[in-house]
Amino acid sequence: MSDFFKGIEPVRYQGPDSTDPLSFRFYDPDREVLGKRMEDHLRMAVCYWHSFCWPGGDPFGGQTFDRPWFGDAMKDAKLKADVAFELFDLLGAPFFTFHDRDIAPEGESLSESNRNVREIAGYFASKMETSKTRLLWGTANLFSNKRYMAGAATNPDPDVFAYAAGQVKNCLEVTKDLGGANYVLWGGREGYETLLNTDIKRELDQLGRFLSLVVEHKHKIGFDGTILIEPKPQEPTRHQYDFDVSAVFAFLQRYGLEKEVKVNIEVGHAVLAGHSFEDEICAAQAYGIFGSVDANRNDYQSGWDTDQFPNNVPELALAIYYILKGGGFATGGFNFDAKLRRQSLDPVDLVHGHAGGMDVCARALLGAAAMLEDGSLASFVDDRYAGWETPEAKAMLSGQRSLADIAERVERDGLDPKPRSGRQEFLENLVNRFV
C-alpha cells in the first residue's frame, strides 16, 4: 500500500441531491437499467497511461506532475501498480487498461523488456486476487520509441516489423494470462508524413500481414477476447491508414479480416476525422465491427486531441442510445482515455476526474435508456423507411427486378413521388426531452 491517496475515502453513490464532490450522484453500479446492472452496461475502465504515466507536459512546457513512482526501475513500476489499484478500489472501477510500456520499464533488449512486462503482470495478478477490477484490454506501445518513428508494421525496415511482432506477441499473451476481454492495436504511427518517401500499397500489405499474424497467434494461444483496431485520422502522423471506421472496415475487407477484428472508437479521434461520436458508432454497427469505446472529449476550440474527461451528457446520451440500440457491449466497454489538465496537480484531482466521468456516463445511460423505452425516435425512423417493407420494394433490393423492370413500372404506374419532411428539428427537440 502507498499513502498517495491518504485521507481520501472510497467514492459511493449518494443520489442526485448529494453535494459531496467525492460522491456519485447517478452512478449506482447495482441499479437495473433495461434489465441489466448499470455497471454491466457501461463496463468502465481506468487507463494506465494518462492516469499514472503522463507527466503533465504539453508542446510548450514540460512536467508539472510530481509522482513518487516516476522512474525507470522495477520498484517504481510496482509502486505505480500499488497506486493504480488503490485508485481502482476508491472508484469501484470494474476494469483497467494498459500499454506494455506503461506498466514496466523498457530494457536493453526486447527479451529484457518482455520479462519486465511479465513480472509486473504477475504483480497485477496478485493484486487482482483482492480487487474487483479486471482487465478490459491490453495493448503494445508501438509508437513512443524512436525505432517506430516511421511506423511499426508499416516501417520500411523489416527488422522494425519483426521487433514490433515480438513486442505484440508478448503483450497479447500477457493480456490473455490476465483474463483480458480484448486486445487493442492502435497504429499511432502507421501512416505517413509525406508521399515523397512512401509506398502506400507496400505499407498497407505489411499492415495487413501484421494484423493477420496477430489474429493467427490469438487462435494459437486460445485467447477468447476480441482484437480491436482504434481509428484515428492524424496526429502524430499527417495521415494514418486507420483514418476512421469506414477506412478500417475497407482495410479489413481487403485482407479478409472483417470477421476477426472490430473497432475501439474514441470520441476525440472521431471528431478529428470530421465525425461525431455517434456517427462512428453507427457506422461500426452497420459494418458489424463495433467493439469498444474510449470515453473522452476534445476542446473544440483547440482542434486537436486534448483527451479531456467526458462531461457533456447530451452528446454522450445519444452515443449510448445507439450503443444500446445495437445490443450494447459484448466484450467492450467505456475506457477513460482521458488525462488531467496540467494544472490539476493533486492526487484528489485524479479521483474527481474519474468520478465525474463515471457519473456523466451513468446519467447519459439513464437518458439513453429512457429514449429507448419511449420508442418515439425509433418509431419515427421505422416509419420513414416503411415503404421499403412493401413487396415491390423488397423485390427491387433482392435482385428480382432489373433496372429496365423498375423503370417500366415507374412509367406504367405514373409514379410521381413527393418529398416528405425529415423533421430534424422535431427530433432534436424530442432528444432534449430525455437529456
TrEMBL record:
Subunit structure as annotated in this protein's UniProt entry: Homotetramer.
Organism: Rhodobium orientis
Its EC number(s): 5.3.1.5
Protein name: Xylose isomerase
Metal-binding among keywords: yes
Family named by the database record: Belongs to the xylose isomerase family.
PANTHER family assigned: PTHR48408, XYLOSE ISOMERASE
Chemical reaction(s) catalysed: alpha-D-xylose = alpha-D-xylulofuranose
Active site: 99, 102
Residues binding Mg(2+) 2, per UniProt: 266, 269, 305, 307
SUPFAM superfamilies per record: Xylose isomerase-like
